[in-house]
UniProtKB/TrEMBL annotation:
Pathway assignment: Carotenoid biosynthesis
Membrane-crossing segments per the record: 6-25, 37-59, 79-96
Keyword terms, alphabetized: Carotenoid biosynthesis, Isomerase, Membrane, Transmembrane, Transmembrane helix
NCBIfam families: CarR_dom_SF (TIGR03462)
Top-rank taxon, per record: Bacteria
Keyword Cytoplasm: no
Membrane topology: Multi-pass membrane protein
Subcellular location: Membrane
Any Pfam family the entry gives: Lycopene_cyc
InterPro entries: Lycopene_cyclase_dom
Protein name as annotated: Lycopene cyclase domain-containing protein
Length: 115
């Protein structure tokens, strides 16, 4: 299995889970501009820190399993993981906050009236 195939599987799983959480929470998903800025920041950090770590010899990749595209020294496949995090974590955060709010205030939003 190549790094690209592994990254695609991970990214697909994160995207499916993120969509499922958004649908299940019955709430509006995260704001696209915020997600876009998050992705941009994470890509920049990934490019910088992966380049530094690869340059210092902390790890290396087998060239036979890489697509061959790099940003700095970081292979393009490394950018799937921050992308997956940016797609999965905001809906997960929203779902967990809604769950905590529902536990703290039972009966709200289910049609019950309070005295």
């Amino acid at each position: 299995m190549t790094y690209l195939q592994l990254a695609a599987c991970f990214l697909a799983a994160a995207a499916v889970c993120g969509i499922a959480l958004t649908v299940a929470s019955r709430r509006r998903g995260p704001r696209p501009v915020a997600v876009g800025l998050t992705i941009l920041a994470l890509f920049l950090l990934t490019a910088v820190f992966d380049t530094v770590m690869i340059a210092t010899g902390l790890f290396h990749y087998s060239p036979a399993h890489l697509l061959g595209l790099h940003i700095g020294l970081a292979p393009i496949e490394d950018f799937a993981y921050p992308l997956a995090g940016a797609l999965l974590l905001p809906p997960l955060w929203t779902a967990l906050r809604a769950r905590r709010r529902a536990r703290a205030h039972p009966g709200e939003g289910d049609g019950e009236e309070r005295a």
